[in-house]
Amino acid sequence: MIRFFLIVALLMAWPLAASAQDHPLRGVALVIGQSKYDELPVLANPGKDARDIDRMLGDLGFEVDRVLNADGDELREAIARFIDEAKDADVALVYYSGHGIEAKGENYLAPTDTDLSSPQTAGDSLVPVQPMLEALSKAAPVTIVLLDACRSDPFPPGQMIVLPGDTQPVPIETQGLAAVRGPTPLAKPDADPDSLGAVIGFAAEPGEPALDGAQGENSPYAAALLKHLAAGGYSFGDVMTMVTEEVYLKTKAKQLPWTNSSLRRVLTFAAEEPSQDKDQVAIKTERRKLLLSIAGTPAQTRTYVETLAGEEAVPLDALYGMLNVLGIKASDGGDDLEQQLQKGAERLKQLMADKTATVKADPELERLSKLADDAEAEGAIALALQYRDEASKRADALLTDRQAEADRLKQDMIDIAQTYADNAATAALNFDHGHAAELYAKAYDAVKDWDAAKALDYKISEGDALTDRGYYTTDNDALTASLAAYQDALVLAPRDKAPLDWARIQDRIGQSMQTLGERVEDTTTLEKSIGYYEAALTVRTETNSPAEWAKSQNNLGNALFTLGARTGDLDLLAKSIPPFDAALRILTPEAEPLRWTTVANNRAASLVQIAQVTYDATSGAEMAAMMAGETNPSDVPVVKAARAKATAMLDEAVDATQSAIASTSRASNPFGWAMLQHTRATALQQRGEMNHVADDLRQAADAYRVVLEVHTKEQTPAQWARTSNNLAIALKKLSDETDDPIPLKEAIDIYRAVIELTPRANFPLDWADRQESLGNALAMLSQYEGTAAPLVEALAAYELANEVTTLDRGARKWEQLQTSMSTTLLMQGLMSFDKVSIDKAKQLALKTRDKLREIGEPDEAFFDAYLPQIDKVLDLFPK
Length: 879
Fold this sequence. Notes:
By secondary structure, this protein is an alpha/beta fold.
């Protein structure tokens, strides 16, 4: 019995013909394979393709006619005979493998005796596709034509042909076929009322060439048809989608089949025969789910995955499998898609490098490991994790059983450790870093007495997994645990015996400490991270390990930048630039576009921060000048000189980011492009604020909005919050310059939304800064509205920020918040004529001044000017 059915589509108003409902369906197929050409290049695989497709269709219940190496007469006769046979069939299917060409918008099949002696004979030799398709669509209710004939132009360069019915020679298209017109529409008078439509499939998109495959193998298109055409329980449309994406993956995105369907019924094949191998069925099922999900992947994401696969030399299949996992877990760690996919690609690359051909001694371990390998190769990484977990359970049992078997113990222990490590690597691919760390620890315990090199790798990998766990989930305990793991690894890799491994661990400790240091108020951890990076660079050099040296240079620059920004230390910020420059000597936009973009952006961000700190250092002098009655306090010499210096650095940052943006494709590297836009916006914002240029602020706001097109609240919440916060800052500054309250009101709404997405427990410093920014905006709104109500909200926001922003965050940072609270109390007292608020403003100013004196960070110029102003206000009140 033929194993396919026609199912009535839900939108059809008229029923399936009685014959199709009451009787088994009849399918006929014509399979053509053209390999041995007289004058055209011989093809390696069409004969094999045709035989294999014939066998598969026969197994599905089709009555198959197979034609191999047919000349023109034989090919035309076979097609005519098949059209006649199709009149009594429900489904007619044609598969053609061989040379095919397109000329003047029409497609032609090439017989083996194609005559190139003249344009006329060449044209007369060819067999047109369109008449065959139209005849079949009238003969059978359903027509399926699959053309594996899009190979590069087989004709000699400049070959001209005269098409049948024409007199003038026309050129042959250099590669690919043209889109085939469908069969006669049902509405036409001569259309067959029982026709249910047609499916036309090309091995490649119209106008694009297809690959023939390696000698002795099937073409990519034929292989995909053989793999999926018999899939039970899927509509034929889904089957062809699976075929398309299978070819796309197997050719590494070089070939994408094309299908045009006009079916007015849902065609599906019956369930496959029960299989004895449930695991292979599970892998095949997950593969098909993956292929169908790839078809719905946004173009921007697809392009990024292709770029990442090429850059990291990893299979597309596994990266798309990771996307399936991220569809569930992308928001767990609060990090963005790019970072997680990049990390996953690096893990996959390491896993591939660590694979060995060694057969595990235990058959069950070998079986489960092979199943996991097969699942990973098919992109079914979630299923692979299940097999790895099963293998680890088996490894648990073996770990106990093999203790007594001294003669096999060493190999068994190595196998057990490798099983745990494989399981850990797959867990990491699924972004389950905590589970991965546990498994690497078990791998280390299993092998530590048997293989020192593997033990070192597993211990470092345990530390890496804990670092990732801490980074992605804000689990600071995991970061602390990673440091302990790295210290254990250092015992196994002393500098004098294993200098490169020692340097690798130093760099890893630096990364973990930097991540932890960014989250806690104490700067000691950040300071230590710098020391570890510098230690790594005493071994890693530009000559002996340039790539690793560049990574450590970038890490060092980042740590110096982070600490300098935290403490307002210009010397530290200035020291961050040379490491970035060093890394950029190795990294290029052509060889490593993703990493180059990151480092180029980091350098520009440092310039922006240096400019900001340079100018902020004169805020006290500017305030003192204002309090002293200077007409234009921003133009006193010290402030003017700092502004000029800062503006020059901001100009450099704007130019550098603009140049980097021009070298970065938004389509292939959207997150890197957005990162550069963000840094450019920050530079424009600060330049506009320093120089009172409203147009710079507008450009900054526009650039932030462009970044938010890439970093959405749903997909990358952490990046969305950071960018939205900066957009709010730019809008507030724009109101400062234009006296227009509308941008300020928008900024206040944005601040509130950002604070809502910033948990204090996980991000205390960011949370405090955003509360302070909200307070500043509300205080400014009070001036526009002439009411004291916003000041009450502003003071509440400042009080919350004050719970976190202590002197440990830096004297100037703390002073800025205390001064904002004092001036807001002063404004509240003036608006409400409330002496109590003004007294509070004075007491807070005195307390702040005295504390700064106590710690050796006085700001006498500001307080000498500010406190008398408060006294003048107090004099307005009755004694």
